[in-house]
Design a protein that fits this description.
Strands 1-2 form a two-stranded antiparallel ribbon. The chain folds into two domains: about 60 residues, Orthogonal Bundle (Arc Repressor Mutant, subunit A), CATH 1.10.10; about 100 residues, no CATH class. By secondary structure, it is mainly α. Helix content is about 75%, strand content about 10%. It comes from Lactobacillus amylovorus subsp. animalium.
């Protein structure tokens, strides 16, 4: 492969436009369209382009192991997020209990358990998350004068979760 052909390939990887890549590589603008198309049919150039595209995609696409590691960090509470409220935007807030539960469910899809105690722990964790989320919603809406209503709502939620 000549230096001009390599430059063509590198430019083509960036733009996906054969004519413009040929011009940037130093080919005549008059013949750039036909040279560009011709270069794309050459086996060694095509192989180089395919190999470089694969390398680039390998670096951009997460592996299954990286996804599992991320989900594990979410479940462990080691990941944070930005949270917007009426009082402003807060960075580095631990992910919500709801998101942690969803991450746990995703992990369990890959590593299922049939242990009844583990299933019960997950149910309790889900119920606790619903209760915590409801408490936060009520507290935000009603402020400090809503404590009685909050306790009443919490009792209803606890009874509902005990039924399940």
């Amino acid at each position: 492969m000549t230096p001009k052909q390599k430059k063509f390939c590198d430019e083509y990887i960036k733009s996906g436009n054969a004519k413009q890549s040929a011009i940037k590589a130093g080919y005549s603008p008059k013949t750039a369209k036909s040279i560009g198309q011709e270069n794309l049919t050459k086996p060694d150039l095509k192989a180089y382009i395919d190999e470089r595209l694969k390398e680039l995609s390998d670096h951009k696409i997460l592996s299954a192991a990286e996804i599992l590691e991320y989900l594990s960090r979410v479940v462990a509470g080691k990941e944070t997020e930005y949270v917007a409220t009426s009082k402003g935007i807060f960075p580095d807030v631990p992910v919500s209990a709801k998101d942690r539960i969803n991450a746990a469910k995703e992990l369990l899809k890959r590593y299922p358990t049939t242990d009844p105690m583990e299933k019960q722990k997950l149910k309790k964790l889900a119920a606790d998350a619903r209760i915590a989320e409801a408490r936060a919603n009520v507290a935000e809406r009603l402020g400090s004068e809503g404590d009685d209503k909050l306790d009443e709502l919490m009792d209803k939620l606890i009874k509902e979760s005990d039924k399940k």
